[in-house]
Amino acid sequence: MAVLRSLAAVGSVPGLWWGAARAAAGLRGRCPRRGYAADSAQSAPTFGFLLDIDGVLVRGHRVIPAALEAFRRLVNSHGQLRVPVVFVTNAGNILQQSKAQELSALLGFKVEPDQVILSHSPMKLFSQYHNKRMLVSGQGPLVENARVLGFENVVTVDELRMAFPVLDMVDLQRRPKTTPLLRNDFPAIEGVLLLGEPIRWETSLQLIMDVLLSNGNPGTGLATFPYPHLPVLASNMDLLWMAEARMPRFGHGTFLLCLETIYRKMTGKELRYEGLMGKPSVLTYQYAEDLIRLQAERRGWVAPIRKLYAIGDNPMSDVYGANLFHKYLQMVKHDGAEKQGAGGLWRQRPSATQSCASILVCTGVYNPKGPEPTQPVQGAEEAPFHGHRDFSFSPGLMEASHIVNDVNEAVQLVFHKEGWIL
Q1: Which of 22, 71, 153, 340 has CA 20 to 30 A from 385's CA?
Q2: What confidence tens digit (pLDDT) does each residue in 310-332 have?
Q3: Which domain of life is it from (predicted)?
Q4: Residue ranges matching CATH 3.40.50.1000 in the chain
């Protein structure tokens, strides 16, 4: 049942056909060293890689040396990938094109934009909201990102604050010196896009709440709070992520936790999402699967891609997501193509993918010397659950198929399992 609840939590795309989108046991504790010899001659690939970025390929702005070794194995003498690879990151405060350029410079080979999946990339599929007036939260190229995703009419938190300056009152230096006239010409907001962690959390939390509690008219007040509230689409549920610091940093999942807690405290009800994207959402893995298939077709690899290997550093997002997607594939295989999701149907096109294996590396969030992610810490009765509220705590989903030191060892492991020349 826990798996079913988690599958239902990822949101859905009512009426969407995926063809139209086009767009072994885990080892705990010490990370083992592995070395493999070649087993057989190389053939057309029947497997592909889903690679996390932060904590797997890079730490902040520094490339992890093992990533360079891994791509010496993955790229042939012509600078082309030997197998289909998609980079699946929960980052979102950057343009897809810019992320591809950044990876190209770090890894030493050409990464195409359509090989990069940002946390919000699947929002392209939520076309029923693309023509609505949406408040967008995050940082970086917010408006450009929203428009790339298909949203035609967006308002940033800063624009809303300028229109209604009396709403943002925490920072004394930013409070208006005089009381401005209330505006009645500001078009109503029809939904909220949460693309990534903002810079001024207090401002974003306050104004998003104002929009939700006023039914999109933040300059007014309502006698009762509307419920269900305006549609909310969110991406990147990571509570923590790994940069240059020795300890993990707050991610967008922490911001979402704050928003959800405030909403429930004020209304007594749960904040609801029309869609939650980014790992561990099944929707993100479906999107990645489709890009793997298209990449293989472009390269002329006629053999269907049967296996996916997801390499990541975060047990909650990377391992949980890959395992949840593997469970989903088994359910589709057993029960048929259509699955009920939250708010509608996933209409899954026929898929050749049979499995998705999770490989956990020790270069990021996961610390093999730290407490087990599924075990209580000293003095506590329950294990801390770093996942999102709408995903059930399921210890089995947080157990990686394999644990290795780094991405280079992960690639060697997969090549060995597939009988490929290293």
Answers
A1: 340
A2: 999 999 999 999 999 999 999 98
A3: Eukaryota
A4: 47-119+279-368+382-418, 123-176+184-277
